[in-house]
UniProtKB/TrEMBL annotation:
The chain crosses the membrane at residues 6-30, 37-56, 62-84. Keywords: Membrane, Transmembrane, Transmembrane helix. This is GlsB/YeaQ/YmgE family stress response membrane protein. The keyword Membrane applies.
Amino acid sequence: MEEVLQGLGIFALVLLAVIGAVAGYIAGAVAGRSKGLYIVVGIVAALLTPVVIAALGVTALAAGGILLILLAGLIGAVVVLAIVRAIRK
């Protein structure tokens, strides 16, 4: 897991945060309420998804490079945002 965190670097963390914020903003716009909540949840989910995947022992994520890590962050943010939207209904 440390290799993933070291491999990410500051630039990738910023990109993950931006991806999460954009996904959260879009989810907030679709839901029509609590855009701030959705943005925060999107950022947290995008940042934590690669870490959780690495903790589960999936080493292909680190080997796949930055694009695969960003894609995993995007998918994780979308899934968590869908769960939050379903709970808030």
